[in-house]
Write a structure and sequence with these properties.
With 354 residues, this protein is α/β, with parallel strands linked by helices. The protein contains ten helices and 13 strands.
């Protein structure tokens, strides 16, 4: 019997989306997987999966003048972008050195057949320099900078979690022969259970797994609720009190869902077939605003004009119209091609591992 291939998988620590994507794809991948990440391992790992926790590479360093500064501070002397060549490779940083050394040591010992990178140009280059083919996950937005081009050039495959004809990414044209468009990846792919129809007049706010945008969320929701007395608001995530392991019934049961424009969040909206107001958060490379513009153009969600300075959340008086517009939507979420996307992503990885 042929042994199952061994696959490495780098999970970036920002937010919860990269981990969520791993957990969505993992059940479809017939391989043993070792995850490397600065994140702590989840309480339960899929069968055949182990976790190697890496040191963080964003803590302060001692600058040449003796002061302690963040590595991204221009006065820190760390030059983390190497004059624009890379995204994050700070000089004289023990955490950065330690994490790359840990990845290199594991690769040298284990010799994986493929390595998924979600996402890091620096890890992509390290993996390829060590003779392992990287499968690099692409993200929406303007990725025309030199580091992205370098990482994609080094990739054996570029896994794009969106459908053909949606995100236009000229920066990917240079590696078009290695790009695989698989559709929006959702952990709820294939589920049909839950309420038969949404409860009229209900709004569900998805706080998400990252910290950005959650500060002051309770106050913003309270103000929006007072401005829309005909609607009943609830918040999912953002605190231990509002966290649930399975949000699917709540997604299916709300008449309107308010969400950020992260890839996993939007794929979950598509899987649930929900009507939504999507409030994009500030992300590097204009990632979420790019997605939000696409959603608005395709009539898949209501996207408010940029409102308050606090993460673009609309003013209270804007919410009655936004919710009425969302209620009137008839979104064709099949455009997002969620059905089977996780399995298609796994097939790309398996192809490289073979």
């Amino acid at each position: 019997m042929t042994a199952r291939p061994l696959v490495g998988w780098y999970v970036h620590h920002h937010g919860a989306g990269h981990l969520t994507r791993l957990l969505a794809v993992r059940p479809h991948l017939d391989a043993d997987v070792v995850v490397v990440s600065s994140l702590a391992a989840p309480a339960v790992l899929p069968e055949g999966t182990t976790w190697l926790q890496l040191p963080r590479d964003d803590h302060d360093v001692v600058a040449p003048d003796g002061t302690t500064r963040p590595p991204g501070d221009p006065e820190s002397g760390t030059d983390p972008t190497v004059r624009g060549l890379l995204h994050w490779a700070p000089l004289h940083h023990d955490g950065h050195a330690g994490r790359l050394a840990a990845v290199a040591t594991w690769i040298a010992h284990a010799r994986p057949r493929a390595f998924v990178v979600d996402v890091s140009v620096e890890v992509t280059l390290l993996v390829r320099l060590l003779g392992v083919p990287p499968v690099v996950v692409a993200q929406p937005g303007d990725r025309s900078d030199a580091p992205h081009a370098l990482g994609w050039d080094a990739a054996d495959r570029v896994l794009a979690p969106w459908a053909e004809g949606l995100h236009v990414s000229p920066a990917l044209d240079r590696v078009r022969d290695r790009v695989r468009l698989v559709g929006g990846i959702s952990r709820h792919d294939g589920r049909v259970d839950g309420p038969g129809s949404p409860a009229p007049g209900t709004v569900l706010v998805l706080a998400g797994g990252g910290s950005e945008g959650r500060e002051g969320l309770a106050q913003r929701v309270a103000e929006a609720s007072r401005a829309t007395p005909a609607w009943r608001w609830s918040v999912l995530g953002g605190s231990a009190d509002s966290w649930v392991d399975d949000p699917w019934p709540l997604l299916r049961g709300a008449e309107v869902v308010v969400s950020a424009a992260g890839q996993n969040s939007v794929a979950d909206l598509a899987a649930a077939g929900t009507r939504a107001v999507v409030v994009p958060q500030d992300r590097p490379f204009d990632e979420q605003r790019t997605t939000a513009r696409l959603l608005a153009a395709r009539g898949l969600a209501v996207v408010p004009d940029r409102g308050r300075a606090d993460h673009g959340w609309p003013a209270p008086e804007a919410w009655p119209e936004l919710l009425d517009r969302a209620r009137a939507l008839a979104p064709d979420w099949s455009l997002w091609q969620v059905d089977g996307a996780a399995a298609r992503a796994a097939a790309v990885i398996a192809e490289v591992a073979r």
